[in-house]
Amino acid sequence: MVGEPFAGREVLLKYADEAFGAASQRVSYDSVVSERGTLSFPNAEVVIVDGCHYLYTRQIGGYDVLDEFLAEVVERDALFVTAWNFYAWEYLRQIRDVEHTFPRKVEIPTLDSTAITELLTNHFGPDLPAFVQTGADGRVKSIGFDRATVSLGSRSVGLPVPELNMEYITSRSNSGEVGDVEAVVFQKLTYLSDGNPGVAGRLWERSVRDGEIAPASVEEVAGTLDVDDDEAFLLELVLAKGSVAVETLQDIVVNVPVQRSLGTLANQGVVEIDEGTVRLVPERLHTTVEHLRGRQLIW
């Protein structure tokens, strides 16, 4: 089972656990396992293993535990149901051929607007905010203006150029009736989260203001990243885990001022640091992915 951070692996694992019933037992990892010989799996017909992306680190000797795990899976007469961070899985496909050990991959799909609506109303309900056409931020502007430089002979001048606001297209109600506002809000949340339930949830929390939510308040968390190579590599490591201890990062990335680099990432809003653990910021997930993909740091 492979999914993006915040995509809801826990829900599917719970379903698998219930489906197999007494035949299954579960093992979960939420931090890096670095010592060989410490893995222990129950003697069950079905072994469900969550957090397999914590069984390796990108350093010399950092794949020993993963290799031990893969050997255990091959040798054991049991069905292993495993869950992986999508970006860790893609990396390990390149260097450890993990798909040969787990040939049947179930990829967690993105959710459509109907599913996002049901998920958010169940999670944040029953007392939901009021859905209003306008909020403190007013209506979404349909047209914005940028500036373009035009050459006029020997000199250049800047002219305002109208630009259609894509936020307007995604938030506009077909009928304009107040009753449509709720559907518009959930459509925007689905679009901006790319159907990722965890990201949609964080966008929802950001968008509720004074007990109200309006299409104009559902906004993409904008901003490009300005990071150097060391900071980008640290960000990739965090992406592949979802959360990771600062101490682990210091062990992996030597001769790099990890604390200072993480401070830069935190200031740009892509990670949160709490009690020695670095976590991705859900609403900045896709900015992170696009930036690292542009630098060819992820596949």
Topology:
Elements: E1 2-3, H1 9-20, E2 24-28, E3 46-50, H2 64-75, E4 79-82, E5 84-85, H3 86-96, H4 98-101, H5 113-124, E6 130-131, E7 143-152, E8 155-164, H6 166-171, H7 181-193, H8 197-207, E9 212-213, H9 229-241, E10 243-245, H10 246-252, H11 258-267, E11 271-274, E12 277-280, H12 285-294
Helix pairs in contact: 5-7, 7-8, 9-11, 9-12
Task: Give your account of this protein's structure.
This protein is 40% helix and 18% strand. The longest helix is centred in the middle third of the chain and has 13 residues, at 181-193. It has helices spanning 9-20, 64-75, 86-96, 98-101, 113-124, 166-171, 181-193, 197-207, 229-241, 246-252, 258-267, 285-294; strands spanning 2-3, 24-28, 46-50, 79-82, 84-85, 130-131, 143-152, 155-164, 212-213, 243-245, 271-274, 277-280. Among the domains are: 2-101, 3-Layer(aba) Sandwich (Rossmann fold), CATH 3.40.50; 229-294, Winged helix-like DNA-binding domain superfamily/Winged helix DNA-binding domain (Arc Repressor Mutant, subunit A, Orthogonal Bundle). Strand 11 and strand 12 form a beta hairpin. The chain is of the alpha/beta class and 299 residues long. It is globular and about 60 Å long.
Q: Pairing-aware structural class of the strands and helices?
A: alpha/beta
Average residue pLDDT: 87
Q: Any idea what the shape is?
A: globular
CATH level-3 fold name of the domain at 2-101: Rossmann fold
Low-confidence stretches: 137-145
Determine the CATH superfamily of the domain at 2-101. P-loop containing nucleotide triphosphate hydrolases
Number of strands: 12
Give me the side-by-side strand order of the main sheet.
2-3-4
Strand coverage percent: 15-25%
Report Rg.
23 Å
Ends distance: 18 Å
* Sheet of most strands: 3 strands, parallel
Question: In CATH's first tier, which class of the domain at 2-101 applies?
Answer: Alpha Beta
| Helix proportion range | 40-55%
Task: Give the name of the CATH architecture of the domain at 2-101.
Answer: 3-Layer(aba) Sandwich
Count of DSSP H/I helices: 12
Task: Give the helices and strands as they follow along the chain.
Answer: EHEEHEEHHHEEEHHHEHEHHEEH
